[in-house]
Task: structure prediction
Amino acid sequence: LAVALIGVASGASAAGDYQTTFTVGGRLIDMYRKLGDLHSLGTAIMIEGGIAIALGKYTIAQELLEESMALARAAGDKYRIALTLNYMGDLARIERQIVQAYSTYEESLSIMRELGAAHEIPATLHNLAYVCLYQGDLEQAHALFYESLEAQRAMGNQAGVLEGLLGFAALASTNGLAAESARLYAAAVANGRGGDSASLWALEKLEYEHYIGLARAKLSDTEFEAEQAKGRTLSMEQAIAYALNLPLGLPKPSQKGIKAPQELTER
Result:
């Protein structure tokens, strides 16, 4: 029954029906409590916390993620600790608690690097890049978006690459490149699942609406629609090339990875 419920929850989540996902997740949590399966319970609670964020249930999300963290720490499970920290960073970010979001993502990223969690690192880099945008550190945001995008490309993760394009579009918008941002947003959405912004994950959609709004405010309706039309004609590879060659006026990031901000010197 638990496996069947996981299938139902996964299908609902893929369809963007987060309320059904949340309801089914609650049944799973109750079941794992009765079974005494602490590992599965911790994972289910962590995922439920992420869905609560998508539904705007921030107080419930905080409670769920704190319980998930307690279970992960009790088990000494660094992987789950890192994933839970990433969700906690999402919660702080959506509530615009910038300092907390930054430190939480940084802690998650540090553990993931220690574990060599190659599949999870790019998403946290991407999340951290948005926090740098809020702080006005465009150079660091650029480096993080770049590292994340290149890692997703190397893994062939199309969903991750599309999120990377959205990140570069946000970077362009923040950097005053309204036309380029509008074009790149259209390219990313057109190449994404469903072909419209409704298919975006809740937090990614929030960022999309904010930054495309900034770009649109600087363009006339005609200019905006023209750039969007150009963007929709770009293939995935063309969109990637366009993103990587934006005239941002920033140093080209190193492909060897970036240094964490405020990192200790060698001495």
Notes: Residues 238 and 267 are 44 Å apart (CA to CA).
